[in-house]
Amino acid sequence: MKPTIIIGGGIVGLFSAYFLQKEGIEVTIIDRTDMAENCSTGNAGMIVPSHIIPLSAPGMISKGISWMFSSKSPFYIHPRLDYKLLQWSLLFFRAANEKQVAKAIPFLKNLGLLSKSLYLNFREEHPEVALALQEKGLMMVYKTDAVEKEEVEFAHLARKYGLEAEILSPQDIQKVEPNLEVKAKGAVLFPGDAHLNPSALYSFLKTYLTEKGVRFHTNTEVLGFEKSGTKVTAVLTDQGKLEAEKVLLCGGSWSGELAKMLNFSLPMMGGKGYSFIQENQPEIKQATILTEMKVAVSPYGNKVRFGGTLEIAGTNQKINMNRVKGIFESINRYYPDFQAKFPSENQIWKGLRPCSPDGLPYIGFAPGYSNVLVGSGHGMMGVSLAPATGKILAELHLQKDTSLLISGFEVGRYA
Ligand SMILES: Cc1cc2nc3c(=O)[nH]c(=O)nc-3n(C[C@H](O)[C@H](O)[C@H](O)COP(=O)(O)OP(=O)(O)OC[C@H]3O[C@@H](n4cnc5c(N)ncnc54)[C@H](O)[C@@H]3O)c2cc1C
To answer: What pLDDT score was predicted for residue 76?
Structure first.
């Protein structure tokens, strides 16, 4: 029997393998790196069923344009003559309207809630993993009237969709964060959110899957496919040919290139971001987003990770220290007592978020293929949404009914 081949050993590929091997499917994972680090290892680790608005929301256009003039801004598209970027930007602008956002909300909400419940099951099944899944919620703090208005409106919208949201005063914030001053006008707390240590999760999954017989071909790049009718029969790599029963494309920001090898269009851009760790001094307790700067704060006891900035970067992975400075300078704007030390370049983690133009992932069968599935384009929420994506892909693989309606994630919507 030929194996199912998963291309891409990021968190989406690993969770897909997890659910497939549970069903007794033989799985091989191919990754062109040694899998020591990719977008799934140093991110902020937030599990966010509250994030029901896609990136391509109407307000992002005006913000994006004003942010374009600041090298330290949270969102940036470097203007350049690049056909792929122009095509992606056009689709992004087209998706950024109220109607599309309203259509996206129930899909993102259901996927987020399913994933959170799968994380809770996962923790119960694997108490041995030092996941550090903390169910303390996520606090969105704001300093300005304009952002307060947006966040409070969003809290009301979230409640309308059945999610819990609490509006906090500065005094309430200090009760949540007793050890240091938080300079903010207020906050919205989403108690249903959580956060975890992404690198602990990632290494656990790698070890667990290896023990369960999943094969890994690392430092192996996929260059093409052999096809017969509607089927892919083999994956061609720089290390040779691997025959496949079925194929899953989970190539993160590079998934568009894999789709091109199969003659369909999967618009995708890498949204580059950075993070760095600090000694948690004085101790921040609450997972938080510093909303004006879109900086994520993920505390893990005596350490805390700060992450942010989204630069539409294609697949360019160069570190831009000015954008790192933007993250760093946010810390003392919100936590004036925090003892922040500027990180050196080798202490900075970088990752490319796989961004689809409409902010919705691609989950399902590849157009024109009966044995190729796609799980990609999760943007800012790949860790949050990976278990649900993996479960749904396993269900499709086994021709079972899916746990959720997935028409909003149709892979061929731009094909
Ligand atoms: C600063 C920052 C903070 C973030 N915070 C959060 C957060 O709090 N919560 C959250 O849910 N998400 C967060 N994210 C987003 C999250 O990290 C991503 O959505 C997620 O890691 C994407 O996972 P993936 O498996 O799709 O892709 P990746 O992790 O990029 O994995 C794709 C893999 O495919 C491999 N590959 C690609 N092409 C080929 C090929 N041709 N041959 C072989 N292998 C190939 C690559 O080598 C790579 O290992 C954050 C991201 C950043 C940058």
So the answer is: 78
